[in-house]
Amino acid sequence: MHRPGRARVARRLSTVSATLAAAVLVAAGPAFAHTEVEAENARALAQDVTLTFSAASESSSAGITGLEVFLPDGITPADVTYEDGPKGWKFATTSRGYKVSGPRLAVGEDAEFSVTVRQLPDAEELVFKTLQSYSDGRVDRWIELEDSGDEHGHGHPAPKLELGPAEPGAKLVSPAPTETVTPAAPPSAASADAAERTPPPSPKEAADEDDGISPAALTAGGAVVLLCAGAGVWWFRRRTNA
What we know:
Elements lengths: L1 H27 L6 E5 L7 E9 L8 E7 L9 E5 L5 E4 L3 E5 L9 E9 L5 E3 L1 E6 L4 E4 L17 E3 L26 H9 L5 H9 L3 H27 L1
Antiparallel strand pairs: 1-2, 2-7, 3-6, 3-9, 4-7, 5-6, 8-11, 9-10
């Protein structure tokens, strides 16, 4: 009579244990639904380091459409090169970082992409604040410096990358080149002096130049007219005396 009772108790205990285990897994699940970043050779001053970002989907009705990353001090948008990401997604720099976005992913599908950083700064930890957008307009803000969520980790901590110490002899490379506008060269001193020594044209010369007739041309024309007039007078007098 005692064995059936013990069996029932054992079955009940097994059922309760399974239920509790399932509840713990369900409760702990969202704690891992964070946006994270990882890299190989994550050391201070390391060059050409590839960072991989992974963003878990937390929506049951919309797909992820993009992630905007805010770069920490020591990394500029010009230092970042896009490597790979979801099909159809594009990379664009912003004033404070970059954005990777494109066609929405399937509901429940996580987003993952990678970028290469020209050089990591001399630091112990890098924080990449991230905005995660969905097709229904929802935005998850992974920007908290500390995980301020509840005991299950239901917060929105920013992705962090721990850096090892710099390798011996590692140095900070020169900043990434940027486009610069070359100003027009100022006039030389010789040309400036020549411009100062050249007198301005007189009002008459300016008027003649405006009419397209030079003073020399006017003088020569007047001489020809006078010469013709004198010849005409001489010929007339000769005819009269004859």
